[in-house]
Amino acid sequence: MKRLITIFIKYPFYANLVIAIFAVGGLISFLGLKKSFFPESIPRTITVSVVYPGASPKEMEEGVTTRIEEAIRSVVGIKEINSTSSESFASVVITTTGEYDIDITLQEVKNAVDGISSMPVDAERPIVFKQRSITQAVFMALTGEGEVDLQTLKQYAMEIEDDLRASGLITQVAITGYPALEMSVEVTEETLLRYNLTFDEISRAIAQNNLDISAGEIKSASEEILIRSRNRSVDPLQVGDIVVRANPNGSFVRVNDIASVKLKFADVSNRSFLNGNRPLVSPLARYPKKTFKKYLPSVTRMPKNSMLRTRG
């Protein structure tokens, strides 16, 4: 060590060279570091959710939740299990220790849940997924003054979402603030009596005719043909054209003859307001692992450009 110090004192050039090497190496390492204004955290939570239509919380607890908990207890890497049983829905949240690969633990949980043979017959297939951390970087609110059609706002929001995704500046975009669309078939009791029909007959006719049917496949030496009937539709006109009853004289009673078919947004108990205006459609965006301030001006101009193009 003394000899090295003596050399550096006698030949300052070598000392400066060593300092320069460390400085350049440090700069290169710094530039190579992954930087993020909103860093992602490593997921450690796995969720198992099950839908069981019409089941009470007690039935969900005894028939679904408990059986899932028992099946996954032997999975290695689980730190804590928290479950919630409510009407028609059960959720089991698994916190892992972080000592094992989350994807391996996820697969083992899936295998354990798929191995449950005593699930209620009417329960839907369990959904198993790992929670991803999403940091909200920008919140964009889209609303209109006065009476604005919710479908129109949704169309504008979808245009904005497409532009944000195509820009390459945004990694995740999710539009919220509007309820799900549902098909509404409205018929009066007077009409049912006049046509001697019941609502169950109408419902059954729609269910039997508005669906996709697979009829197998045809194989030959050179090709394979899948036979499938695609009749499922969300178009009110097509649903209204479904035949409910065929009369002896050759005439038909169709859905639109006796009922009003509409595609509308579902009624929800929670509603959002912005400056007293309703409805509110909110695209949520998260930036990639880059300095988001650099891209903020471009992103904030996109909604205006999208709406101008849509109107034009």
Task: Throw out a few tags for this protein.
single chain, 312 residues, alpha+beta, Alpha-Beta Plaits, Multidrug efflux transporter AcrB TolC docking domain, DN and DC subdomains, 3 domains, 4-stranded antiparallel β-sheet, 3-stranded antiparallel β-sheet, 38% helix, disordered C terminus
Provide a brief overview of the structure.
The protein has helices at about 1-10, 10-30, 55-70, 100-115, 150-165, 190-195, 200-210, 235-240, 255-260, 295-310; strands at about 45-50, 80-85, 90-95, 125-130, 140, 170-175, 180-185, 210-220, 225-230, 245, 250-255, 260-265, 280-285.
SSE order and pairing:
Elements: H1 2-10, H2 12-31, E1 45-51, H3 57-72, E2 78-86, E3 89-96, H4 102-114, E4 127-130, E5 138-139, H5 150-167, E6 172-176, E7 181-186, H6 189-195, H7 199-209, E8 212-219, E9 224-230, H8 236-240, E10 243-246, E11 252-254, H9 255-258, E12 260-265, E13 282-286, H10 296-311
Antiparallel strand pairs: 1-3, 1-4, 2-3, 5-13, 6-13, 7-12, 8-9, 10-11
Helix pairs in contact: 1-2, 5-10
